[in-house]
Specification:
single chain; 2 domains; 356 residues; alpha+beta; globular; OB fold (Dihydrolipoamide Acetyltransferase, E2P); 7 strands; five-stranded mixed barrel
Length: 356
């Protein structure tokens, strides 16, 4: 079955007849006490909230999370987000679709990202940390999962290859930021950037619908990260115990605070930097995703629950030339860019001979 309509192509009031992956499905009670079907549908271009106001129980019995469906309905704009009002919902066999049409993927080539990550690891000065990263990254199963896994279920980098994209971005930031702080050991920050989330390959499942594994719920990627260090460092004779301890501290503290899951707050400069680097990259991706998903005509998004705020969608522009007031220097004039052929020297030059 060929998919023709994708989420990213939809507009307000569009009639929809297409195939989707069911990422979430539940029967909810409306204000009037009547049941309705609450869904999140998806394809390779994004997610789409959906509601079915009738036949909720019947549809719920026929459709499961992770299944594929043919949907008929109409797009409605609700709180700056598109919502599909479902008229008909029919399950279809999984072997009748192309899986790549329903999986969001990183826009960057995974092999190139992985090679760049190896190059960054090769630049480390500490021979033990460099060898450790190379051993971890070249492990066949870790490499396979790293190129496929998302970094999260929904908040940031929640797509195929998202974990590798996030880790590489953090490693790049580590290389850029650390020269500004001479007292910080760059190698530990880079190692922390590469290793901090790598055990999400055990915390999250693969497949079209990402879920937390039992190991992810009961143990989590911070503890798994320490276990991974133990596994690889045990193969490296004479690995310094102090180096291992500081790496472990970076991993268990990178969420920043106890209420966010860290067993310890960052207590070294390197651990604090890794925490901030992780926060920068995850938050920037979360911002970008929220802005892209907002379909309202305003310069502002609707309220974003997980960020607890609205976001400004406009792009800030740089002004390369000084502004003049329309109609002279009178108060209330309108700024305008200097016309072609007018002086382009800086404001500092213009004010050089100014006297009070």
């Amino acid at each position: 079955m060929e998919k023709r309509q994708f989420v990213s192509d939809l507009h307000n009031k569009d009639e929809v007849e297409s195939f989707f992956l069911v990422k979430y499905i539940a029967v909810m009670a409306g204000r009037d006490g009547r049941s309705y079907l609450n869904l999140v549908l998806a394809d390779s271009s994004g997610d789409l909230e959906a509601r079915r106001w009738s036949h909720a129980e019947e549809s719920f019995k026929r459709v499961q999370k992770g299944s594929y469906v043919k949907v008929k309905g109409k797009i409605n704009l609700y709180q700056s987000r598109f919502q599909l009002i479902v008229k008909d919902l029919v399950p279809i066999p999984a072997d009748s679709v192309k899986p790549e049409d329903y999986l969001r993927q990183s826009q960057s080539d995974p092999e190139r990202m992985f090679e760049e990550l190896l190059t960054i690891a090769d630049q480390m000065g500490d021979c033990y940390l460099r060898d450790l990263l190379q051993m971890v990254l070249m492990d066949a199963e870790i490499k396979r999962r790293l190129t496929l896994w998302p970094a999260g279920k929904s908040i940031h980098h929640a797509f195929t290859g998202g974990l590798l994209e996030h880790i590489l971005s953090c490693a790049r930031l580590a290389m850029l930021i650390t020269p500004n702080y001479q007292e910080v050991n760059r190698d530990y920050v880079v190692a922390g950037a590469v290793l901090h989330d790598i055990c999400k390959i055990y915390e999250l499942s693969d497949g079209p619908v990402v879920e937390y594994t039992d190991e992810g719920r009961l143990v989590g990627h911070l503890v798994n990260g320490v276990q991974l260090l133990d596994r690889f460092i045990s193969k490296m004779p004479h690995f310094p115990s102090q180096s291992k301890m500081h790496l472990e501290h970076i991993l268990v503290s990178h969420h920043g605070s106890l209420e966010h899951g860290s067993t310890k707050p960052p207590q070294t400069r390197e651990a604090q930097l890794v925490h901030f680097i992780d926060l920068i990259d995850s938050q920037m991706n979360s911002f970008q995703t929220a802005i892209e998903n907002d379909r309202g005509n305003s310069d502002w998004t609707g309220y974003i629950k997980h960020l607890d705020r609205m976001l400004y969608k406009g792009k800030l522009r740089s002004i390369s030339q000084p502004l003049e007031l329309e109609g002279g220097d009178d108060e209330g004039g309108t700024p305008k860019v200097k016309a072609e052929g007018s002086p382009t020297h800086s404001m500092a030059d213009q004010l050089k001979n100014f006297k009070v």
